[in-house]
Design goal:
With about 170 residues, the chain is α+β, with helices and mostly antiparallel strands. The chain folds into two domains: about 50 residues; about 100 residues, 2-Layer Sandwich (Alpha-Beta Plaits), CATH 3.30.70. Helix content is about 50%, strand content about 25%. The chain has five helices and four strands. Strands 2-3-1-4 form a four-stranded antiparallel beta sheet. About 5% of the residues have low confidence.
């Protein structure tokens, strides 16, 4: 208190005014503390609300989370030089199956007939449509290289499509 009296003597301020100033300063500090506590609580409430919103948001199914690329290959069976079939259809399919088993261990094949016009001449060809999932484009290219050689093709058409793969086993 003696220190307070010295301050009051040095600065011409009434004791009453000094006390009010100190009380207001203490109140201001208290209000600042309350504001910080409320802000912290609001932040926690905001985080809880965000967590609740995330937990009630529709979840992707496990299948949707397993995005995949499906590679579809179109393998013509006519020789690129003679435009005549390299193999009979059943032999062509068997040769393709051997290549696919060697490179992938599995496959899906559909038989198709393709055709085109070149220099006013109609060409038709037995075509194998091959579906591959759960593999990489590098492995697909390796198999296509072998098909090009085996079937004497100038190319193999490869379509890579984004898809969803789900090896469903029942309930």
């Amino acid at each position: 208190m003696a220190k307070m009296n010295n301050i009051i003597k040095e600065y011409p301020m009434s004791k009453k005014l000094a006390t009010i100033t100190i009380i207001i300063s203490i109140l201001a500090l208290c209000l600042a503390g309350v504001a910080l506590i409320c802000a912290g609580g609001a932040a926690k409430d905001s985080k809880k609300a965000l967590d609740k919103k995330e937990s009630t948001a529709p979840k992707e199914s496990a299948a949707e989370e397993q995005g995949d690329i499906q590679h579809v290959l179109y393998l013509g069976t006519n020789d690129k030089d003679t435009t005549e079939p390299v193999f009979a259809p059943d032999v062509a399919k068997e040769k393709a199956e051997e290549i696919l088993l060697k490179h992938f261990g599995g496959y899906t094949i559909q038989e198709a007939n393709g055709g085109w016009i070149d220099d006013d001449k109609i060409y038709r060809e037995y075509t194998l449509v091959i579906y591959l999932s759960d593999t990489t484009i590098d492995k697909v290219h390796a198999a296509a290289d072998e098909m090009i050689k085996t079937f004497n093709q100038s190319s193999v058409l490869i379509q890579s499509n984004k898809t969803m793969t789900d090896f469903y086993s029942g309930n």
